[in-house]
Amino acid sequence: MSPGTEELVGSSSTHVQEVVKAAEEDLRQLIRQRADIVRRIGTIKQTIVGLANIFGDDWFSEELLELVGRKGGAQQRGLTKYCRTVLMEANRPLGAQEVCEQLQGRIPLVLLHHKDPAASVTTVLNRLVKYGEALKVHDENGRRAWQWYDQGRSGSIGRQWTRFGVTFMR
Fold first, then answer.
1. Which of the pair, 138 or 162, is modelled with greater confidence?
2. Facing residues of 162 across strands?
């Protein structure tokens, strides 16, 4: 490289580092906001479903009932949404089979057309990790489990740490 090019690259690298740092901070903030929004949506949906259970579906429009998964094919296309909800509400990491069991108890039809429900749930859980919404963990027995990613609780990104006998990986 010529001396002028080296100087340009050197001064640019500082600027690039600043841009990358700012982009990382923005991304972290957006992920936190998304998690908060998903939680709020879940709370509102639970409220609507609870009211529908008490007062009946007649009080609600068809469109609203579809939005909360009480009408039509919403249950079939909502596996990711329901896995997300199960993880958010769990107070500990869950294995794929445990998520399946919770889904079967809450929304039995959601897994009805899946040939291998555990494999489908595992795929969704891994996708949630990829989206930055969940953490893949190993318990003290080395079994895979997943936990909703709450940045305020874990505080670590891009590394591995152990807490309460569970190894977290990001």
1. 138
2. 167
Angle 55-59-60 from CA coordinates, rounded to 5°: 120
User: Do residue 99 and residue 166 come from a single domain?
Assistant: yes
Mean pLDDT of 89-102: 92
CB 135 within 8 A of CB 154: yes
Residue with tokens 């100087």: 7
Residues 165, 169: Cα–Cα separation, whole Å: 13
Domain match, 86 and 162 both: yes
Show which of 40, 71, 102 is a domain's final residue: 71
Round to whole Å and give the CA distance between 9 and 102: 54
Number of domains in the chain: 2
Contact indicator for 138, 144 with CB cutoff of 8 Å: yes
Summary mean pLDDT of the chain = 79
Residue 42: domain span = 1-71
